[in-house]
């Protein structure tokens, strides 16, 4: 870029000259952005279309500001201004470039995560591997985003001379300061270490079915400090991430999503069991929710006025197991009421004397 001193033989003021140079730099940056987008559209013929769409979606905004900033930064040497203004403008552009570059790195990580989500789809019947990878991926991405933000803030602060002096002064008291910071950050560091432990040992994963604090729900999100549990009635239970290291809880999908379900009915001693076995087989065979693994009817307890009959069934996951249990319970009660009414619970009374 050449210095612009005159146009049509007229000498330009320095301010106007600088504005023209800056406007040309911004224009070149926007043109470069258009060229980059055209290249991506061309690559769409060879690369997966969803990757191109994600790249344009997440990087379109940051690139729109990043490229003009790069061109304006390069054009500063051609501008004429006092050192005070030059240093201030140069510092502002430098900070904007650092922040913009950090945003681009964060967005690139989001693109990578989205592409991996497409590859590791949770909608599969057996999604154990997908849940493992997604849990690790989500934690690692959030950790790296935090690191990028901290580094970007540090670079911005250290670019100021006054901040470097403050940092040098603080180093003299690093011993005492380290102890104070250690005590203050003890809980945060505990959460961070617990997050690493959960991400790689995986007592819980994304989309796991848990029973926590008496609530049934699925793991919706795992952050650096807390876990979000999506309760069955659409409430959200928020728990500190250390909870899953320090306290017991039930994980119904730890090894696989397959689950056994039970239905208990309390019936009279006159109840015939074999017809109930045949009816359960009929109900399960006609239901797509049954995975054909377990089909058992047993008397599991006897009480003074009734027997406890357990119907043991199996399903591919907890949601299907719950629905199948409801179906079996409803069908069995209707069947017993229609064909074996004497099997329904009853109270026996012995009458003596004239009343008898």
Q: Main β-sheet: number of strands, strand sense, barrel status?
A: 5 strands, antiparallel
- N-to-C SSE string, H for helix and E for strand: EEHHHHHHHEEEEHEEHEEH
The spatial strand order of the largest sheet comes to: 6-5-4-3-7
Assess the beta-strand content as a share of residues: 15-25%
| Mean pLDDT metric | 80
Structural class: alpha+beta
Cα distance spanning the termini: 116 Å
Poorly predicted runs: 7-11, 170-175
Roughly how much helix do the residues carry, as a percent range? 55-70%
Using the alpha-carbon principal axes, give the shape: elongated
Number of helix segments? 10
- Oligomeric state of the chains? single chain
Number of strands: 10
| Rg calc | 34 Å
What does this structure look like?
The structure is a single chain. With 356 residues, this protein is an alpha+beta fold. Helix content is 57%, strand content 17%. The protein contains 10 helices and 10 strands. Strands 6-5-4-3-7 form a 5-stranded antiparallel beta sheet. It has a 3-stranded antiparallel beta sheet with strand order 8-10-9, with helices on one face. A two-stranded antiparallel sheet has the order 1-2.
The gist of it:
This protein has 356 residues and is an alpha+beta fold.
Supply database-style keywords.
alpha+beta; 5-stranded antiparallel β-sheet; 356 residues; single chain; 10 strands; 3-stranded antiparallel β-sheet; 17% strand; 57% helix
